[in-house]
Design brief:
399 residues; mainly alpha
Amino acid sequence: MARSGRKLLPLEGLRGIAAIIVVLYHMVLGFTPHGAGTVPHGCGVFAPLIQFGLELLNGGAAVSVFFVLSGFILSLPFARDRRLSRIIFATLKRWPRLAGLTVIACLFAYLVIIWSGHDYKQAAHVIGAGWLASHGNSPINIHQLTPWQALRDGLVRVFTQGDVRFDSPLWTMRIELLGSFGIFLAAPLLFALRSWVLRLTLAGCGAYLCGTGFPQTYFTDFLAGTLLAILFAEDKLPVLHGWRSWLAGGAALYMFSFTYEQNLLIHAPLKAALPPGDSSHFVWDAGAALMIALLLGNPLLRATFSRHWAAWLGRLSFPIYLLHGPIMLSLGAASFLAALAWFGMAGSAMIAVFASMAITLLCAVPLAWIDRGWTGTLSWTARWLEAKLARNQAIKPGA
């Protein structure tokens, strides 16, 4: 299997699963009064086990998986080609690649916000969900919103300020863009070095300099992906069979389920070892790295995650991530209110979740095709410009 083809297909499935976890996490925040991780009364001795299961619905950990995967995928081309032109063109096309869809997402969010009005506030009052009442931690004044603001936010503000006024999940776009730029500088250097001592020293210095302050600390996620990409490109990822695969999988789930606010005794050692600040993602990075190593190093998992469903799930992951917030805060809230008189609180919440997920999937399919066409256009343009630049440089000596 080629490195650029089916051998990386399992990672597309992982990206799609991470997107689904984020969606489910937000659904729980929006349509239940206590949010994720709250154990129902009467569970007795099974309460810790149930809480551990609920903690797997970890939106923050899923976002770290996205960042580690980005570091991995964006770094791999530099294993073969570390020319300056490659770095320049990769950097130049990264913003338009992301902004093409964030603009559509913000304009879409503007339309559904204007259509639904204050339905999200009414639903939040009935449910008692603070996250829903705050419009997904992105407070808005409906009467002051304009399509020009949505256009500007999708083009600029989500990348420069992390502005999430229209679409709550877009807070990650600033980290994604800046982390990508960092990787385009760091990955060629780390690949060029042949000593793992130097590689780890430089990566460790980078992580230390980024510290635990938001958002620069998340560059560590991308560095983790780069180091994995080097191991993969040099065929040094381990082959995991039998008890090794079970051990790696258990450790990955253990770290993925970690949240700094949790009270599970099994996570106490991690909590005690972490530095102060925004540092939970360090644990999630280790879990994401184990997941990637397991998917690429275990033959059974690699085969399972190399099927067509994984390709489709990966293709839909970015559109699903972009659209689910506006849809659940508008159409989801409206469906909850419409069903309340007939089905009560719990039934209406289930209907809202089902409607939100179904409409998100329905809208994500055409957006995925747009994304595919847009990405292909940018890649073709970059290759054409690079080839033209190379021809011009070849002509100059003989001129």
